Amino acid sequence: MMEKLSVEERFSNIDYNLDIINERIQNAAIKSGRKPEEIRFMAVTKTVEPIFINRAIEHGVRLIGENKVQEFLSKKEYLKLDNCEAHLIGHLQTNKVRQIVGEVSMIQSVDSVKLAKEISKRSEQNGLTTECLIEVNIGAEENKTGLDLSLLTETVHEIATLPGIKVKGMMTVPPICDSSEQAKKYFSKMHQIFIDITGKKLDNVDMCILSMGMSSDYEEAILCGSNLVRVGSAIFGPRIY
Ligand SMILES: *Cc1c(COP(=O)(O)O)cnc(C)c1O
What we know:
Blueprint: H1 7-31, E1 40-44, H2 50-58, E2 63-66, H3 69-76, E3 85-88, H4 97-100, E4 106-110, H5 113-125, E5 130-136, H6 152-160, E6 165-172, H7 180-199, E7 205-211, H8 218-223, E8 228-231, H9 233-236
Parallel strand pairs: 1-2, 1-8, 2-3, 3-4, 4-5, 5-6, 6-7
The structure holds pyridoxal-5'-phosphate (PLP).
């Protein structure tokens, strides 16, 4: 059985974990031939209570990610977001778009033209532009969110023509891998696709973000070209649902 930690103990764990992760990110960045500042770090805060999220923000976190619209909106008023951005990273249903547009600075999980059209419509209605990433199902897994690779170029083309939405890059969650070598294959493949599509210089597309890497593999992801890593349990501990 897991012993219940006090709030103070959890605070100090968060501080400690963030310091270690930050150091590892810096080392991986340098190893990959980039500057540490070129890698953005996101604290994934799903299931985490605001008090602990705020601790992470106080410790220097400048970007958080939430999976669910409802969960984020119910926590938002308690969060100290003056110097911290929030992105949506979980699957988004078309009927929830209305609630989230304007509430986060980026939606990382756009995986269909239908969804993009709804984001476009709601953004226009609110007089704003929503930045998005295209989520790619890099492992071609069934029953998994993310766009099929074969549809990527035409989908990006089509989304790029919509008003009120701006494509800033791509996001992926690779299949669960047994080894870091296996994970690296997916990350490298994704990076190559990112390079290829960036090279096409599509109108209204500013492909600058490649969001990949989580608690178990963020260093590998950076070594393979990621410039935004999304880390949850390595900061806050295992999630209790
Ligand atoms: C939960 C989640 C993460 C973080 O996962 P950890 O393994 O806890 O680091 C990253 N990205 C997405 C899309 C997630 O849903």
